[in-house]
Amino acid sequence: MPALPWGFMAELGMQLKTDLGTSCRAVADRMVSRRTVVQGLAAGAVVGCSDGPPMTADGALTPAQLSETVGGVLTTDDTDGHIQSVDEADLHLLRRISFGPTLDAVERLKAMGHTAYIEEQLAMRDDAIELDVLARYPLTANAPQAIYATTVIGGQPYWLHTRQYQNAMLYRAAHSRAQLYEVMVDVWNDHFNTYLYKNPVPLKLDFDRTVIRPHALGNFKALLRATVMHGEMLHYLDNHLNRSGAINENYARELLELHSLGREGGYGEADLKALARILSGWTYVRSPANAWRPTDALDYGQAVFDAAGHDTEPKTFLGEYFPAGGGAEELDRALSIILDHPGTARHVAHRLCCRLVADEPPPRLVAAVAQRYTATGGDIPSMLRTVLRSAEFRGSARQKLKRPIHALISAVRATGVDRLDQTLNYGLYGVAHNPGQLFQHLEQAGQAPFTWTPPDGFPDTAAYWSNTNTLLYQQKLIVRLAASRSYSHLLSDPLVAREQGLTVADDVAYATTAREAVSHAIANLLLGPMPAEAVARAIDYMADGGDPDAPRTRSELTPRIQGLVLALLSSPWFLDK
Asked: Would you list the DSSP string of 351-384?
């Protein structure tokens, strides 16, 4: 694996030592050649894991402690000069079915084995995190009628709802025990993407709560039907404007091309037009343009069929004849045809394999997952079992690049930031409708939650995300993360924290020598492989021209530890998965 030029860490460390708080842009801009980073992203990588609870002076793990805890062994193989880990298969699974490994997850996977752990994740829902979300972001529980009443009648800015919804997504991803569930919620929110800000009444919150989340690990056929019967989708794809005599094809096109059969699904222009006519008359309870009515709050958002707006002429859709005089029942019949079509099985299988295996998934695996769709009637857990138990999945390590949300949430998880830090570092992580630095940097990196305007959802390929702008804003957030105060450490060891002012980075690499700091940081953030040359340069950077084994004070080590953590979390060994 080609290594990044780790000599850049010396310059980075000096800049951080000078003024961490005001030099974020300069640090990120100067840290390394952008082209080098992008080229390095193609190299193999391993995501590190870290303790979920707060780290203390006794909590930062050395390689030996990590080996003893999770059964892995970090050694130097003289034949190729790389740090090796015997548990690459465990880490590979956790990278793909979570927003980043934690020590707790690694330990549980080790104890249970892959099959039992996957089954537990398929069934798990984190009720505790939902209570926490309700307390932190109460507007996310509002029904459509309450959203309408507060925004339209009450005059409350709609962004109070949307910011809480976005923060809640990030909070669940960072802290929920049901990680596979949260990953699949993310998958289906992309698959059935709607733009958060198109509707001035943010029905997207209810769409996520009542459609996506209940079906995320259920049945795809039930999921798709639920999306069709929700006001958010009917509004976003303009079907509320689709009436006999004024047919609007937007929803029909995306329902076929993106949600079900796919671009190569075997349908033609005549099928698209027929489906648009079948969908005519389907709308939702809303106010007329520029005439908000308080009574609409009673039923706002509810999908309804307007018979007067339906095209009752005969139609032929995917070879099936629909006689004249049909009504609402036509849509149910059309959806059955769509959902039983082999094109839908292939398209859904491809979506799952793209997210969990590779940007260009193996055709044989896609076919096997499509077969499970057909055999089980669209059962999502059955399809996921086929993916996660396959040889293609096991052989796909390091073939995916983390998107910004995954990259930054996994950095939060890897550094051991817990719920207490999430609360007290509100300027970084956001509370209620305060978006926080995490959200703002995701916005600048191009992936603020639910803000993709086109209906195809955020791209899921390295080709799209391996650009200088994305990497810049990820690194700028990591600078802030590494330097922020660890409140959990302050409570667990208040005297040490008071005397030494420990940061999140200090907790990750708590050490008394330069070599120890590198050892601890690699053990807690990266489980290998990492080129021996890179390790040596990291030690040189931490030693700053001195003896790497000489005792150092915290004031001497802290600025360079923050630079070291930034470098590791910005490297391909962390960003590839």
From this structure: HHHHHHT-SS--HHHHHHHHHHHHHHTSBHHHHH
